[in-house]
Amino acid sequence: MPLNHLIRDGDNPDITEERQKATFSTEELAIEIYGEPLAQRRREISAEVLKRPELLDDCPHVFLDRTTKVENSMKKTVAVMEKGSEICDFTSREELGHLVCEVFGDDGFPLSIHFVMFLPAIQGQADDEQAEQWIPRAMRLEFIGTYAQTELGHGTNLRALETTATYDKRTQEFILHTPTVSAYKWWPGNLGKTANYVIANAQLYIDGKSHGPHNFLVQIRDENTHQPMPGITVGDIGPKFGLNTNDNGFLRFDHVRIPRRNMLMRHSKVSADGVYSPPVHPKLSYGAMIFVRATMIRMLAHVVLKAATIAIRYSCVRRQGEIKTGNGEVKILEYQTQQHRLFTALARGFAYRLVGDEVKNLYEKIAEEVKHGNVEQLADLHALLSGMKSIVSYDSGKAIEQCRMACGGHGYSHASGIPEMYAVEIAGCTYEGENMVMLQQQARYLVKGIHRLAHGEELSTMLQYLANTSNNKFRIGESGVDLENALILALEYIARSTIERVTARLDSLQNKGLSAENAWNENAVELTRASRTHTRLWIARCFRDRVHRIENHAIRSALTDILELFLTYEVVDMSQYLYQGGYANSDQVAQVKDAMYKLLEKIRPNAVSYVDAYEVSDTELRSVLGRRDGNVYDNLLKWAKSNPLNRTEVLPAVEKHLMPMMLAAKSKL
Ligand SMILES: CCCCCCCCCC/C=C\CCCCCC(=O)SCCNC(=O)CCNC(=O)[C@H](O)C(C)(C)COP(=O)(O)OP(=O)(O)OC[C@H]1O[C@@H](n2cnc3c(N)ncnc32)[C@H](O)[C@@H]1OP(=O)(O)O
Ligand SMILES: Cc1cc2nc3c(=O)[nH]c(=O)nc-3n(C[C@H](O)[C@H](O)[C@H](O)COP(=O)(O)OP(=O)(O)OC[C@H]3O[C@@H](n4cnc5c(N)ncnc54)[C@H](O)[C@@H]3O)c2cc1C
C-alpha cells in the first residue's frame, strides 16, 4: 500500500512519482492536523458537494462580473441552507466551515460577517434575556446581521467614532444618528446589499454626557420587503482589491429610534431612568474583534497552505531548464531557490495552522472566564492576539506571494487561483486593526513587562523569558544542545534584547524630559520590531511544543523536519539581531543556513505528500495549476477557451472600433 493516499490512475506520471516517494502516511498526517472524525468527515463533505450541481460554480468565478458573483453566492447560500444539513452537521463549526470553503471559496459569502462577528458579538455581549430573544432567530436566519463599527473618517481610533446613540428617557429609546459625512459607517462586510440588522457601534450619550463607544442592535431593512427602514441610507462601497463577492457597505442613521433593550447589556447597562452601569473592564465592548483576531489565524494559515499546495504540485509537473547540461529538463522543484521559497511557505503554513489551534483554545478558555466576570487574563490575550494577527497576516501574505511568483507567468494568471488568494489574505493586515497599530498595542504590554521585571514584580508565563539574562551566547553546535533548543534560545535572545533596547531608549528619552507620547512616537518603528520578534518567538515555541506532543512517530518525524526548517528560517531571517550584544558570530549564522539548506533536501521527496495531507479538494482549490491529478496544460487550454472573451471569433468591440480605424487607415494609402 503506498503511503500517499491520493495516487490514482490517469494522473500525470510526474506527480504520481512524487506520491510514491512518501515516507509517512498522508492519511495519518491529515488525522494529526484535523483530528478524527473530522479528517474523514471533511472528505465525505467534499465528495457530497461534488454530487450537487446547485452547490458548484457553472464557470470559473473569476470570469464573472461583481453583480453575478454576488447573485451566485446568494443562490448557493440558499442551496446550502436547504440541503446543507444532509451533507454536514450544522452544529459543528468545523464541518460547516469546511462546507462553506468548498462551496464559496475565499472571496466572501452573504453570511460571513453574520457568523464571524454579528453572532459572536451577541453571544459575548448580550445579556441572557437578549440572547434568548435574538440568537435563535439569527441562527435560523430569520434575519442576517453584520458588525458596523468602522466609519468613513475613523477605523483605528475607536474613541473618535462619531455615530451617536443618545438616550431619550421619556420614550426609553436610543436615537442613533450620523452627524457628519465622516461618520457614515463604511466597510462592514455584507452590509451593502445583504444584511437587514446590524450591531452598530456608537458613542453613548445620557443627559449630554458621553460614555464612549457601545454596541446596539439596529434593524436597517424591512424584514418583508428588504427596503431600507425609515432614517436609513445604505449601499455597497464599490469594488475592492479583493473580496469582491462580499458587499462591504456604507450606512447612515438619521435620528433612528431603537428600544432601550437594543443596547447589548451583558457588560454595560442603561436603566430605564437613564442610569449607566459601566463594564468590569472598559474594553469588553471590543469582544467581537478579539473573537475574529483569534479565529483569523487559522483562516490565514489555510490560505497559505492552499497556495503552497498549488505551487508545490505545479513545480513537480513543470519542467524547465537543466541542472546538468545534457541530462534533460528537470522539474522546477529540483532548484534550490524554488525549494527555499516554497518549503519555507509550507513551513509557515503548518506552523500558523497548528499554532492557530492553540490560539483558538486559549481564546475559548479566557472568553469563558470573561463571560463570568473574570478579566484577569484579558490584557495577556489582547496583547497576544494583536501580535499574532499582525505577524500571521503579513508573513502569510509574503509566503503566498512567493508561491505565486514560484509559478512563473502562470502564477500571474487567475487560472492559478493564487492572485485571488493573495488579495483576500492580505486584507488581514488591515481588518481587525491595522498591523502597525496592533503591533504597538502589544509593544505597550512588552515595555510594561520590562518595567515590571525591574520592579521585581511577577511576569506572566508568556513573558518569563525576559528574566533569562544568562542566555547571552549562541549555543549552536555545542555538545548537549540540540538544534531546536539552540534556535529557540536564539529567538528568545532576539526578542529579549530588542524589547530591552527599545525600553531603555524610551526610559532615557523620558528621563531627559521628553513626554511619554513623543518618546513613544520617536521609537515606534523599533517598538513594532520588538513586538514582531516577541510574537515570532511565541509562535516558534508553541509550534515546537505542538510537534513534541505528537505520539505517532512517523508523523512527529515528518513534522519535525518542517519545524526545524521553520526555526532555521526564522533565525536566518532575523539574524541581524543576533549580532547585537555579540550573541552570535557569522560562522554560527552560516551553520544555521547550512542546516536550513540540508532540511530543504530532506523535505524535497515528501513535498507533494505534505500538501496532499492537508487535503484541500480541487473544488475548494479552484486552481488549474494545483489540480490533484497534475494535468495542468490541457486544462489551462480549456480554461482559456472557456473565457467569455473567446465566445465570438470577432469581438463586437473590435468590429465597432478597431476595424473601422484600420480600414480607414488602409483607405488613406
Ligand atoms: C461557521 C461558519 C464559518 C464561516 C467562515 C466564513 C469566513 C469568512 C471570511 C471573513 C473574512 C473576513 C472577515 C473580516 C472581518 C473584519 C471585521 C472588522 O474589521 S471589524 C472592525 C475592526 N476594527 C478594529 O480592529 C479597530 C482597531 N482599533 C482598536 O482595536 C482600538 O481602538 C485600539 C486598540 C487601537 C485602541 O483603542 P483605545 O480604546 O483607544 O484604547 P487605548 O489605546 O487607549 O488602550 C487603553 C488600554 O486598553 C487596552 N485594550 C485595547 N483594546 C483592548 C481589547 N480589545 N481588549 C483588552 N484590552 C484592550 C490597551 O492595551 C490599553 O491597555 P493599557 O494597559 O492601558 O496599555
Ligand atoms: C476587507 C475589509 C473588511 C472589513 N470589514 C469590516 C467590518 O465588517 N466591520 C467594520 O466595522 N469594519 C470593517 N473593516 C474596516 C477595518 O477594520 C479598518 O479599515 C481597519 O481597522 C483600519 O482602520 P482605518 O481604515 O481607519 O485605517 P487608518 O487608521 O486610517 O490607517 C491608515 C494608516 O494610518 C496608520 N495609523 C493610524 N493610527 C495610527 C496610530 N495610532 N499609530 C500609528 N499609525 C497609525 C496605520 O498604521 C495606517 O498605516 C474592514 C476593512 C477591510 C479592508
From TrEMBL:
One Pfam family matching this protein: ACOX
Primary subcellular site in the record, as a coarse category: other
Residue span(s) of domain Acyl-CoA oxidase C-alpha1: 286-447
GO biological process per UniProt: ascaroside biosynthetic process; fatty acid beta-oxidation using acyl-CoA oxidase; lipid homeostasis
Keywords, ordered alphabetically: ATP-binding, FAD, Fatty acid metabolism, Flavoprotein, Lipid metabolism, Nucleotide-binding, Oxidoreductase, Peroxisome
Single Gene Ontology MF annotation: FAD binding
UniProt GO cellular component terms: peroxisome
Metabolic or biological pathway: Lipid metabolism; peroxisomal fatty acid beta-oxidation
Residues reported to bind FAD: T150, G189
Obligatory cofactor(s): FAD
All copies of domain Acyl-coenzyme A oxidase N-terminal, residue ranges: 26-144
The keyword Glycosyltransferase belongs to this UniProt entry's keyword annotation: no
Organism superkingdom: Eukaryota
Active site: E432
Subcellular location: Peroxisome
Protein name per the record: Acyl-coenzyme A oxidase
Source organism of this protein record: Mesorhabditis belari
Lineage summary: Eukaryota, Metazoa, Ecdysozoa, Nematoda, Chromadorea
